[in-house]
Specification:
- This protein is an alpha/beta fold.
- The chain is built from 15 helices and 19 strands.
- It has two domains: 95 residues, Urease, subunit C, domain 1, CATH 2.30.40.10; 307 residues, Alpha-Beta Barrel (TIM Barrel), CATH 3.20.20.140.
- The strands form five sheets. A five-stranded mixed beta sheet has the order 2-6-17-18-19, with no helix packed on it.
- A hairpin with a 2-residue loop joins strand 3 and strand 4.
- It starts with a helix and ends with a strand.
- Bound molecules: zinc ion.
Length: 444
């Protein structure tokens, strides 16, 4: 016969295994109907002055009141959470993540490891992003299993950001990647076919990768737009950028990250005037590489060690040995020199800029990709408040969710993070995330 304590022991053992698997039932979490975050500084996502000693009231999953704490009525039945001495800001929106990779040093060695544990690895990535303050993420390239991961997050069975996913990208090249990450085409007709097929499978957006002609991209855009879907294009060279602009790509990914010498003024002006959003992903090679040379200890990330099985953590460490020789960083020193101008061009031209990280690429861990990219945007000419607004409000607008997400104001969904210190003084404090609230539920 089981006594009271034995039942409790069984419960704890069960809870332990559920948390081990990263599985959490949202209904089982403490979901207070009303929460009030009170006392800290508030950056609401706009390029506006902060509200000091602020209060935010959340009812269910929506924000109902925002302002100085002295002027806000805190409902008597609200759970009051002190944010004194801290800073509240909207959850971060990352427009370029990859759940299928977690920062392993060499892609060609990672694919066979990933093969039989795709969903398990994607679940770890999703949890790491959420704990780093990313409450919304766009995944731009993964096997179709990511649809399950997205759905499991959205129905509360897995921890992670709100996910919007492209599934496999469409490309004419891409020999280096396994077939389930991409759909290879050789004509605009095939490109259109693949776009239709992906949308039928349930993806939220389409990504075109390297090697696509202007007609290829146009064919994808026509299909996607006719079905209410946006197209994100991976583009580096000026020729590819013009092709993407003329073909009507909705979001330009990677351009201006230092992969090329500076662009011509007419290309920059064309993009800025048309208001085509740019997601630069500038940190993933050119900021992370020197940061790792200076402080290789960052590779022994405690959160990576905690989340990965021990043998896999050791395999990651092995993959980092002599990382300057790894194929991914072959051209990085030159990119670092180019980036001194190239990474500033779109910022100086006041193009529409949102934030994306290429999170999961070699040594670019989900645990810190967001703050490193935002910090790189500040290094490249944005003020901290501009970089925060780009990484919250603009990000939400670019994916068409501006009316629900991206700012802290009454009526919006309650995606709020709390960090230590003042990011307007030192943007790197975004690396110290104390609290994460997504959809009105506190996860950290
Ligand atoms: Zn990418």
């Amino acid at each position: 016969m089981m006594g009271k304590y034995s039942y409790r022991a069984v419960f704890f053992v069960l809870a332990f295994f559920l948390s081990l698997n990263g599985i959490q039932d949202a209904s089982a979490q403490q979901r207070s109907n009303k929460i009030a975050l009170v006392g800290g500084m508030l950056l609401d996502g706009y390029e506006a002055v902060p509200i000091h000693h602020a209060a935010v009231v959340i009812e269910g999953n929506r924000i109902t009141a925002v302002g100085p704490a002295s002027e806000i009525d805190i409902p008597e039945d609200a759970e009051v959470i002190s944010t004194e001495g801290l800073t509240m800001l909207p959850g971060i929106v990352d427009l370029h993540a990859h759940l299928m990779i977690l920062g392993h040093g060499e892609y060609s060695e990672w694919w066979p490891i990933l093969e039989d544990k795709k969903e398990e690895m994607m679940a770890i990535s999703a949890k790491q992003l959420l704990m780093a303050g990313v409450t919304t993420a766009v995944d731009l390239g993964a096997p179709l299993e990511i649809l399950n991961v997205r759905d499991n997050i959205n129905n509360g069975r897995l921890l992670g950001p709100r996910m919007f996913v492209s599934g496999p990208w469409i490309t004419r090249s891409g020999r280096r990647f396994p077939s389930h990450f991409q759909r290879r085409i050789s004509s605009p007709e095939e490109a259109a076919e693949q776009a239709n097929d992906l949308i039928d499978s349930g993806v939220d957006l389409i990504k075109t990768w390297s090697g696509m002609t202007e007609d290829d991209i146009r064919a994808v855009v026509e299909v996607a737009h006719s079905r209410g879907i946006k197209v994100h294009s991976h583009l580096y060279s000026p020729e590819a950028m013009w092709a993407g602009v003329r073909a009507g790509a909705d979001v330009i990914q990677h351009a201006g990250s230092g992969g090329n010498p500076p662009y011509s003024d007419d290309l920059i002006a064309a993009i800025a005037h048309r208001g085509i959003p740019i997601v630069q992903t500038i940190a993933h090679r050119i900021w992370i590489y020197p940061a790792t040379l200076e402080f290789p200890e960052r590779l022994q990330d405690a959160r990576l060690k905690e989340d990965l099985p021990p043998d896999l953590y050791e395999e990651f460490q092995r993959s980092f040995e002599g990382f300057h020789r790894n194929s991914y960083f072959r051209t990085t020193p030159r990119q670092m020199r180019l980036s001194k101008i190239a990474a500033r061009q779109f910022i100086d031209a006041n193009a529409t800029i949102a934030m994306g990280t290429d999170s999961g690429s070699p040594m670019n861990f989900h645990t810190e990709s967001a703050w490193r990219e935002i910090s790189a945007l500040v290094d490249s000419g944005m003020t901290p408040i501009q970089a925060i607004s780009a990484s919250t409000k603009t990000g939400a607008e670019v994916i068409g969710l501006g009316s629900d997400l991206g700012t802290i104001e009454p009526g919006k969904l309650a995606d709020i993070i709390v960090v230590e210190g003042n990011p307007l003084f030192d943007i790197n404090v975004l690396g110290y995330v104390r609290m994460v609230i997504k959809d009105g539920v506190r996860h950290k």
